[in-house]
Task: structure prediction
Amino acid sequence: MFEIKRYSEADKEVWNVHVEQARNATFLLNRSYMDYHSDRFHDHSLMIFRNGKLYALLPANEAGDTFFSHQGLTYAGLLTTEHASAEDICQVFVAINTYLKQAGFRKCIYKPIPWIYQQQPAEEDLYALFKECHAQICARNIAAVIDMKHPPKWYNIRKSGARKAQEKGIHIEESEDYATFWSILNENLMNTYHAHPVHTLQEMIRLKASFPDNIKLYVARSETGKMLGGTVLYISRKVVHTQYISASEEGKQSHALDALFQNLIKIRYKDFDYFDFGTSNEEGGKVLNASLIYQKEGFGGRGVVYDTYEWEL
Result:
């Protein structure tokens, strides 16, 4: 019933049209976003056809004999339209497994799209993983997400911080000064984790140019105009996601991020369904960064898991 074809560059336009129509896709699954790091991953994305018509997509890459729903993305599950049914999606995974075994793969790693990013319920893939693949959860990270229609109260420490920042004259604005923010971000990540941002400054500027309505930088500035901190937001149809958050030492002392998120959550993006602060884990969820998630919970974030599944072929 279903036929599997490996994606090629010639399919880019068809792929992107389907992403726009999918009930569970965000701009991260557009090839113009996905391919920014094509030099780091050996792409093996799949296009699934039924009777010659495109039915679904699976963003993916390969590494040795393991097939990954794309490692370069936070989530990369099966992309379907509102016409997808549970029985069909089970058959899709049977076809995918047959294709992968014939291609010499021995193992699959799959990261479904969290439900908050779905425009309508789209978890038929999770059922198919259980029924057809006998998959097991191999990683579970927890994100702090605000239900913007029913937001919990802020912790007093966050409310107090926002008030103190306002008293100091800190103001919030959208900015194109990614270079200054990246300097703050790099310093923080090096001091705390001995790491760099996933994206280089040049990559982020290029992605921003490609997706100006989806990627935005908001910063907190002092009365003199000095940048004290900021956040890069990824904005999809229902969800505002904080891709990066960072403040300078002066910004931390001035509670700049409390003022920043008060503005973003309660004013600028109050009409969105969810505000996703992202995960606070290491080692596939086995380690919880308690202080980091506490800060996010202070703004009203509550738990949504980002799962990863695996199965043998």
Q: What stands out?
A: Residues 23 and 81 are 5 Å apart (CA to CA).
